[in-house]
Amino acid sequence: MIKTHKTTHEHEPLILNELTIRSVDRSRKDILTWRGALISAESIYYPNRSRLYDLYEDIILDGHLSGVIAKRIDAVLNKEICFNVDGKKDAAIDELIHSSAFRDIMRTIMETRLWGVSAIEFIPGSKLAFDLIPRKHIKPELGIIAFEQTGTDGIPYASLHNIWVMGDNKDLGILLKCAPYCLYKRGGLSDWAQYIELFGQPVRVIKYDSYDEQTKLELKKILDESGSSLSMMIPRQADFEIKDGKQTNCDGNLQLSFIKALNDELSITVLGNTETTTSSYSSGYAQSKVHLDQQYEITRSDLIYTAAMLNSPRFISILRGYGYPVSNGHFAFTKDMDIDYLKTRIAIDKEIAQQVPLPEDYWYNTYGIPNNK
């Protein structure tokens, strides 16, 4: 077990104590809400992301979006990672890597790609501990943590050694592109529910003589007591015709295809493909393989990004503050063992090795073979 440095005074995170935290705005949102929030976030003189991040909190409740987000994040969290010193694995950091706190940090790093910015406040003490700073209070353009989510007064974080702010000042995250699809999908589901309510049950039409009020009252009583299906009462002399849309949308497939198209757009935006989440009528092995390769490329990019953030000077300095011996090494993900890829690669490497000598380290690094020398 690693002996970590104990500070002489442990305290609650000061920044969070000074912030005025507001509830998430759960009011009804539409495309105009998205455009207004985007304009506010991109303002040159008074940029404010609070409305946009309230919208993000709303759309991540979408089942399909939350599923593809979890799939992308888990692809990184489930990869084996180690700490290497001089090219060899340092087992002394394994306890840290396998801790829930370290896993949560990796999750926050990945969520930064979705939201555009994240901030962590590390709590001084004997163990790695931290709190997330609400993103609505992070003002990367001003370099402060604002006291109010819509304010411009706050605490400069550049000189604070226990604050780690991740993300680019102008990046608004992948969720910016997902928001319109989720909002349109919400409207499409409402239309579909209304269609089912109107045409999911047969319509009952009763005609009566306009001068016979007694019969009218009796018929109304019968309709009220015989269920909740759509019912109508019209005078026999009236001409009545119901336009139910069944000529072009007899089974609600119009709404279904619209929602499926929006789900596909969400999958492409987050994962870069559709076939690894849902299957289409024309899908086959070759098409699925191409889509899987596309997702692998995004996962590789996420692995490189996550490793770069873990090896950043700020995070390494924070770990040193907790007493972890991380000065002479770096975090690295182990190689993926893609059998099909390795079969092709080793065939090529064998041919090249006959023409050009390959260094010994090449075989260790390419095929993920541990070097115990």
Kindly report how far apart the N and C termini lie: 25 Å
**How many runs of DSSP E, i.e. beta strands?**
11
Poorly predicted regions: 1-13
CA radius of gyration is: 29 Å
Widest sheet: strand ordering: 2-1-11
Class per helix and strand makeup = mainly alpha
Count of alpha/pi helices: 13
In round numbers, the mean pLDDT is 82
Number of domains: 3
Approximate helicity band? 40-55%
How would you sum up this structure, described in words?
By secondary structure, the chain is mainly alpha-helical. The protein has three domains: 285 residues, no CATH class; 38 residues, no CATH class; 36 residues, no CATH class. The chain has a three-stranded antiparallel sheet. A three-stranded antiparallel sheet has the order 4-3-8, covered by helices on one side. A hairpin with a 7-residue loop joins β3 and β4. α2 packs across α3.
Briefly summarize what is shown.
This protein is 48% helix and 12% strand. The chain is mainly alpha-helical. The longest helix is centred in the C-terminal third of the chain and has 26 residues, at 285-310.
